[in-house]
Every structure is written in structure tokens, then in C-alpha cells.
Amino acid sequence: MDARPIGVFDSGLGGLTAVRVLRRILPEENLVYFGDTARVPYGGRSRETILRYARQDLRFLRSFDLKAALIACGTVSTTSLDVLQAENDLPIVGVVEPTCRRALAVTKNRRVGLIATLASVRSGAYEAALRRLDSGVEVLCRPCPLFVPLVENGRFRPGDVVIETVAREYLAPLLEWGMDALILGCTHYPLLEEVLSAVCGPGVALVSAGEESAFELKRLLTARNLRAPAGGKGEAEFYVSDRSEDFEGAASLFLQEDIHHMARRIDIDQY
Ligand code: DGL
Predict the structure, then answer these.
(1) 156 Cα: distance to centroid of ligand 1 (angstroms)
(2) Which of 8, 170, 188, 193 lies at 20 to 30 Å from 211 by C-alpha?
(3) Is the pTM of this model over 0.70?
(4) Is the pLDDT of residue 257 over 90?
(5) Is the CB of 5 inside a 6 Å radius of any atom of ligand 1?
(6) Strand pairing report for 181-184 and 236-240
(7) 82-99, pLDDT tens digit by residue?
(8) Which residues pair with residue 7 across a beta bridge?
(9) Model pLDDT, residue 92
């Protein structure tokens, strides 16, 4: 048993897709969330810059006495997971492996589509993990650089003509190719779930990176006897690197939990 908090981070709102699942499947756990809202998006940046940011994000979270960390960001997981794991004496879970395992469990025709940020697609990490797990799988990847800025600006609701047009254009080649499973390889994308499933139709299963990593973390905590005592109610704390008000509005909506006046702004350059 271990009541210390779990650290969760992302470049912005996206990691909340993991937080939402964690609150449901591990309600007794204390969480500390950091969204690097001053520097989002990470997805178009170089690996060196992403690693530098990720080190600072984790250093900030480690100012709390963490028992584990979840990198709830596809971009950091695909580019920096191995380095962060090697540098930290802390169990760290990323999103790539658990998501690929899930995609392979749901695909029937073994044609898996992947949408993610530019940095994630460039890294080849999802593709490599899929092929390691199933050498016969076919994978088609497509970067979607406009999705994260649109989500961060609240343009994720069905009926929004801008996001719907962009989604149709990004997904067209994947649909033509005949995928039956689509990995949402960036944790911002599940906020677009309704829009994306309307474009894809019922024949394509959507697999969310944030969700699968939350289940992986639960398995890890259980295996290492690190779970918080059962029956308690865990607290969640939220930190951001820019205006907290903007984050609180979108986060409350998405988590279906009122977190107004709960997010605190920190200076990430001090870490
Ligand atoms: N949620 C991040 C990811 O999963 C964000 C990407 C970004 O900041 O561009 O890749």
C-alpha cells in the first residue's frame, strides 16, 4: 500500500483523457497533473526540445513525493520515454505499448491507422511497437498538426465546421485504405472522439492512447503493491505553466468535474 501521488503530465489539456480514466478506475489514488500550457503544442518541435521540456515537466512533478508517473502525452512518450525511464528511479508509464496492444486486440483485418503529432509520426515508435507485437500488421500513419491547436482553442465539438472539415481531410486517405482500427496516438485527440467517430463510421474502432495507458498504470501499481488503500477518495491537483482560467474551463467540461479556481500556475523555467 502506498498513498503517495501519481504524477501525470502533458503539453496541455490532452493528458486529461488519461486523468478521466484514472479517476474512474483508481478513485482512491491522489493525482498531480501538470499541463505545459505555456509551451503547447510540442508536436511540431524537435526531439531535443521535447526532451528538454519533458525533463522539466517531470522535475516539477518530482517536487512532490511521487510513487509513479504517467506520461500522458504521445509526443513525449514516442520521443523521450526511454531516456526519462533511464534517468529516474521511478516507475514511468508511457502511452505507446499499451495503445498498440489494444489496437491489435480490436483489429480484424490487421490494417491499423495511426494519427498523431508530427514528432510522434517522425519517431516511428508506434509503428515499431505494432510490428514488434505482430509482424504481419499493416500500418498507415498520418500526422494531424492542426488538431492540437484546435482542441486547445475549444474547437472540438460536433457541429463545429472547422474541426469537421479538417478531420474529414486528414482521415480520407486512411478510410480509403481500409483500416478497421484507428489509434488516436495523441492524447488530445480523444477530445475529438465524437467528431472522429462520425467521420469514420461504425466500421472503425477508435483506440485512445490516454485511456490505455491508464489501464497499464493500474496493472503496474497492482503488480508492485503500490496501490493506495482501498475505499478512500483520492484528490487531484492541477498545475499549468500559463493562465489557469483557460485550462480550468475546458478541463471542467471535459472531466465533468468542476475544477474552477483549482489549477495553479507555476514557472516551469525554474525546473
Ligand atoms: N497530447 C500530446 C500528445 O499526445 C500533445 C501534442 C502537442 O503538444 O503537440 O502528443
Answers:
(1) 15
(2) 170
(3) yes
(4) no
(5) no
(6) unpaired
(7) 999 999 999 999 999 999
(8) 32, 69
(9) 97
> Which pLDDT value is given to residue 192?
93
* Residue 144 annotated as catalytic: no
Residue 10 Cβ inside 6 Å of ligand 1? The answer reads yes
Residues facing residue 264 across a β-bridge: 239
> Is the CB of 185 inside a 6 Å radius of any atom of ligand 1?
no
pLDDT of 250 over the 90 cut:
no
pLDDT, tens only, 129-176: 999 999 999 999 999 999 999 988 889 889 999 999 999 999 999 999
Determine the Cα–Cα distance for residues 203 and 48; give it in Å rounded to an integer.
39
DSSP the chain: ---PPEEEEESSSTTHHHHHHHHHH-TT--EEEEE-TTT---TTS-HHHHHHHHHHHHHHHTTS--SEEEE--HHHHHHHHHHHHHH-SS-EE-SHHHHHHHHHHH-SSSEEEEEE-HHHHHHTHHHHHHHHH-TT-EEEEEE-TTHHHHHHTT--STT-HHHHHHHHHHHHHHHHHT-SEEEE-STTGGGGHHHHHHHH-TTSEEEEHHHHHHHHHHHHHHHTT-PPPTT----EEEEESS-HHHHHHHHHHHHTS--TTTEEE--GGG-
Does the beta carbon of 43 sit less than 6 angstroms from any atom of ligand 1? yes
Q: Which of 73, 141, 144, 200 is catalytic?
A: 73
Instruction: Select which of 100, 141, 186, 200 is catalytic.
Output: 186
The CA distance from 134 to 15, in Å, is 27
- Active-site annotation holds for 73: yes
Residue of the CA atom closest to atom 2 of ligand 1:
73
Instruction: Find out whether the beta carbon of 228 lies less than 6 Å from any atom of ligand 1.
Output: no
